[in-house]
Amino acid sequence: MGRNEEARLKRLDREQENSFINNKTLDQCFNPIKARDNLDRDTVIEALNYRSEEAPLKRLDREQEQEALISAWRLESDMIHDSSFTSSKALKFGTIAFRQSLNLQSSFKLALRQIDMENNHKSDSRGALIVLEGLDRSGKTSQSSRLLSYLEGLNHSVESWRFPDRNTGVGQMISSYLANESQLDDHTIHLLFSANRWEKRSLMETKLRSGTTLIVDRYSFSGVAFSSAKGLDIEWCKAPEIGLLAPDLVLYLDIPPEKAAERGGYGGERYEQLEFQRKVAHSYQILRDASWKTVDAGLPLDDVEKQLREMVLDCVTTCQKGKVLSKLWST
């Protein structure tokens, strides 16, 4: 390098050096990390800012840092204005920058892990899938409506669903069957009930992940309980339900079949027969798992609602804090 060029470099004013230090620190010190881990500049900045709030980053002292950065600036200038730059300069800068990057890598990677953990936790925050089950005329529809109003009053995003969904093509076939307007083989109607739930599975997941809680009147447990009560193998009945979303809470409204039969409107649909309902109640007992809570549905409506409110609000809060969606009856 000629004397004129050396003189030019010596005349670098402090403003230029500071500008280089401020604008090039991340690029020069973290390029090796970014290239290896395929990170963008914004991620690097986020990690640095995050870590700096917890503890100061380990750095070379200020004079060494400025020396490394100014050397890099001069090296960059040499490459632009003079195609001949010495390997010793490149080696000198590379050594300093490498030492600095080693000091920062452990703190940087720790910050990234902490950010990932927090982001994953936030991404698991969602609405709750709450299912009401029970015999016909146990009060599921009434309590679903009450719970919907209760959560709306607390400004929660919530919707009330019901299976079978009789608005779909499959649902209309089921509705006709339940009203004794058509006849279908027991295996066929069971698969139609299952298909009706699968029709809504994608929308259900979208709603839950967006933060909407779903209060569902009947779900897969009803399908299995009613079909197995007809004599179908219970494991066969469960098979087409595997892979649907698992409820966060199942509220079983427990009432003796005889008491349910005394309620208004009983007997209007195919399955509302006392002896058959007894078999359904037995099948429900087999299906119970840790997600189930049982409430005495023979109590006054207000008393039942009070118990359900506490269970539901606790479940909704848990899901909002972060809970992974799971699949029904999947090992």
TrEMBL record:
It is an enzyme of class 2 (transferase). This is Thymidylate kinase. HAMAP family: Thymidylate_kinase. GO terms for molecular function: ATP binding; dTMP kinase activity; hydrolase activity; nucleoside diphosphate kinase activity. It comes from Actinidia rufa. Residues 132-307 form the Thymidylate kinase-like domain. One of its GO terms (biological process) is dTTP biosynthetic process. InterPro entries: P-loop_NTPase, Thymidylate_kin-like_dom, Thymidylate_kin_CS, Thymidylate_kinase. Coiled coil: none annotated. PANTHER family: THYMIDYLATE KINASE. CDD domains: TMPK. Belongs to the thymidylate kinase family. GO terms for cellular component: cytosol; mitochondrion; nucleus. Its EC number is 2.7.4.9. Pathway: Pyrimidine metabolism; dTTP biosynthesis. Keywords: ATP-binding, Hydrolase, Kinase, Nucleotide biosynthesis, Nucleotide-binding, Transferase. NCBIfam families: DTMP_kinase.
